[in-house]
Write a structure and sequence with these properties.
This protein is of the alpha+beta class. The protein has four helices and eight strands, in the order H-H-H-E-E-E-H-E-E-E-E-E. The protein has two domains: about 100 residues; about 110 residues, Immunoglobulin-like (Sandwich), CATH 2.60.40. The strands form two sheets. A four-stranded mixed beta sheet has the order 4-1-7-8. The chain has a four-stranded antiparallel beta sheet with strand order 3-2-5-6, with no helix packed on it. A hairpin with a 4-residue loop joins strand 7 and strand 8. It starts with a helix and ends with a strand.
Length: about 220
């Protein structure tokens, strides 16, 4: 009986979530975000309660063979609720990012590595107009992920429109194990659209060295 009450409660919460997500966020964004966050907490509580109900139902399976169908339905319902909670969490994250970093001021900086035979990446420092904005110290696992084609979002922030100078300093080892640095200064203009900058470490087979290439994308 308790299991069915949990299911009915969760069905009601699903309807509430649908109504909350469909609100016009631009009309009152802070109030909507607060309501969605509250519903998320309630949803998670409901999910936890249903997990307890499932455990109780499983305990009774040994004595009631006819309860298998109910348990299966409850298990499917829990999987659906789990999926909805995860989806809601993703939507809240995207909404939060849009609020904190609007397109008119948003800048993102990425790091990628092409092969990495001539430079074993250890760390990176990034400055804009001589002001430190980001830094990262890599583990072997993270470095290998980049060498295998991964792209790291190093920085996400806000800049007003104007001209800027980006300085990137990469520290690491050459192919003979000697400490070395690779650095670049890059001039860019921030307009009223989102700006993406990729810092690419690229191997040059002609001189067995690694160079930095900067690419921009405007969204």
């Amino acid at each position: 009986m308790n299991s069915f009450l949990f299911l009915n409660s969760c069905a009601l919460l699903q309807a509430i979530i649908s109504q909350r997500i469909n609100l016009n966020l631009t009309r009152n964004i802070s109030q909507t975000l607060s309501k969605i966050s509250t519903v998320f907490v309630i949803m998670w509580f409901c999910f936890s309660a249903n997990t307890y109900a499932l455990e109780q139902a499983n305990t009774q399976v040994n004595n009631k063979t006819n309860s298998s169908k109910t348990d299966s339905e409850l298990s499917n319902k829990l999987e659906q609720l789990k999926s909805q909670v995860l989806q809601l969490n993703r939507e809240l994250f995207i909404l939060e990012e849009d609020l904190l970093f609007p397109a008119s001021t948003q800048i993102a900086i990425f790091v990628s590595v092409d092969i990495g035979r001539f430079f074993k990446l250890d760390s990176v420092e990034v400055k804009i107009n001589s002001q430190d904005i980001a830094g990262f110290l890599y583990t072997d696992k993270q470095r290998k992920a980049l060498e295998q084609g991964g792209i790291q979002k190093l920085y996400l922030g806000n800049l007003k429109m104007g001209n800027y100078q980006l300085t990137a300093i990469f520290n690491g080892l050459d192919n003979e194990g000697r400490t070395m640095k690779r650095a670049i200064n890059y001039q860019f203009e921030k307009g009223d659209d989102s700006l993406m900058i990729e810092l690419k470490l690229v191997d040059e087979t002609s001189n067995l060295r690694t160079k930095i290439i900067v690419e921009e994308w405007v969204l």
